[in-house]
Design brief:
Two copies of one chain form a homodimer. Chain A is an alpha+beta fold. In chain A, 32% of the residues lie in helices and 25% in strands. Chain A folds into two domains: 4-178, Formiminotransferase-cyclodeaminase, Chain B, domain 1 (2-Layer Sandwich); 183-290, 2-Layer Sandwich (Alpha-Beta Plaits), CATH 3.30.70. In chain A, the strands form two sheets. In chain A, strands 1, 2, 3, 4, 5, 6 and 7 form a seven-stranded mixed sheet that branches. In chain A, helix 2 runs parallel beside helix 3. Chain A is globular.
Chain lengths: 297, 297
């Protein structure tokens, strides 16, 4: 199947369909890239584009879309509910198959340099690509937003990683980085007591001493009169699905509660399902290329 | 990803590399087909070719390879340890993704008719494509082999499903059909007592009252001083991996024995792994298209 990376650029335009179409078209034009989703939000005035492809094709698509956004979006005119620093606000690369996080960090650096030099837009690297701990989290990098960063960018601690040390007059700044695939995962409980779900969520989430790559909350699903542990698995290679499932099962048993089902919301990388089967069947020496469909094309 | 079928034709030539290469080349030439494996055995004087592709491409590749085999193999000269009735001995179609067994039976009928009419080779349909119960099992269809079938073919009960009611002078007859994907699956036990493995194997195999689509034996793996249940899963959609694994675990516990691991030997369709994850995570409403890699162009 070859190396595959996902890229999810966020653009500061969610209202003008012709502008959104022009940006998305830049992605579509690149061979070796498959567009998966386009999600525009008018109140946020923001569009999230999801595509996958081989690393170089993905980088090219991200660059041309960023160039088009710089041409068509004027941050001086932009208003919206969502925090942002530029026309292309943030571009994360996500490893999908046969590619390491290190390669995605490298890709983020290459793209950052290209955007800085060719488009004259200042670029900040974040998450796995961050060069200092202060720039790992997106909210820290975006502090002050477009308006505040115009002056803050000249201070030493806000100096960009690539490009000029001043904002692009229309496109602002862009944040580029690499992170793991996020799996939205819900576990449904045989109880209508949301307090139990909240206690279980606390037991698995990082903030309360649980799993490092697990964000979790207990919520009530009114339509089913059922409590649910709703989870963001922010790195399934570090904290796998089966471990969270088994821990929730064990913690729920403490309250006499069972798991009645679980839901994967949206996409999941094949590797996360292989890892699950590998664990439960106690597979010895299983290799991904044994999956028949992996040998095509 | 689109409809995908596997095809595993067996040819009665395992000694002359140039003949094998010429036959395999017919498969390689067809667009939309991916060659997965070629396995020749000199003592059997037989070659097994494995390829996958979209249904029409797979049918075309099977036909052209069969035509080439009829051109280059003379059954009057053929000797080998393996039972056979023709130059192209047997052609099974196997559903892999987005295709039903009924569609594979239809494909077998189309190919059988084409081989009968265009190559003048008598064709018998077997397994899921069989038109009578007496022709389901390959050994029944192959009874008497090439030499015996030359006269038996004229009797009403051995009349072919397609093509002439006499053997092709060089290529003999061909058996075409449709069957499920076979998964070779071994479960390793925490004991060196092969009798326990044999008892567990008896509990899961169809012949002894076990699972319908399960063939199993207990064997000793000398290098690891370990007993093993070695299994052919002949229809993982009817008898899934997890059910066999859990039953072996339960039966082994009866003897104070644990499962120390399991092995998938060779290829496995993605769906079998999805089904495993689906079972253990108790997934609700999971669809195959949620697998990220399934959405690629």
């Amino acid at each position: 199947m070859g190396k595959l990376v996902e890229c999810v650029p966020n653009f500061s335009e969610g209202r003008r369909p012709e502008v959104i179409a022009a940006i998305v078209n830049e992605v579509k034009k690149v061979q070796g890239v498959t567009l998966l989703n386009v999600n525009s939000d008018a109140s946020h005035n923001r569009t999230v584009v999801t595509f996958v492809g081989d690393p170089q094709a993905a980088k090219l698509a991200a660059f041309t879309a960023c160039a088009k956004a710089a041409e068509l979006i004027d941050m001086e005119q932009h208003q919206g509910a969502h925090p942002r620093v530029g026309a292309t606000d943030v571009i994360p690369f996500i490893p999908v198959s046969d590619i390491s996080m290190e390669e995605c960090v490298q890709l983020a650096n290459e793209l950052g340099q290209e955007i800085g030099e060719k488009l004259n837009i200042p670029v900040y690297l974040y998450e796995a690509a961050a060069k200092t701990p202060a720039r790992v989290k997106l909210p820290d990098v975006r502090k002050g937003e477009y308006e505040g960063l115009k002056t803050a960018i000249t201070t030493p601690e806000r100096q960009p990683d690539y490009g000029p040390a001043h904002m692009h007059p229309a496109a602002g700044a862009t944040v580029v980085g690499a992170r793991q695939f996020l799996i939205a995962y819900n576990i449904n409980l045989s109880t209508s007591d949301v307090e139990i779900a909240k206690k279980i969520a606390a037991s698995i989430r990082e903030a309360k001493g649980g799993y490092k790559y697990c964000r979790a909350m207990g919520v009530m699903i009114e339509e089913r009169n059922m409590a649910q542990v709703t989870i963001n698995m922010v790195d399934y290679t570090g904290t796998p699905l089966h471990r969270v499932f088994e821990t929730v099962k064990s913690e729920a048993a403490r309250y006499g509660v069972n798991i009645i089902g679980s839901e994967i919301v949206g996409m999941v990388p094949l590797q996360a399902l292989i890892d699950t089967a590998d664990f439960y069947l106690r597979l010895e020496g299983f290799e991904r290329k044994q999956v028949l469909e992996e040998n095509l094309g």
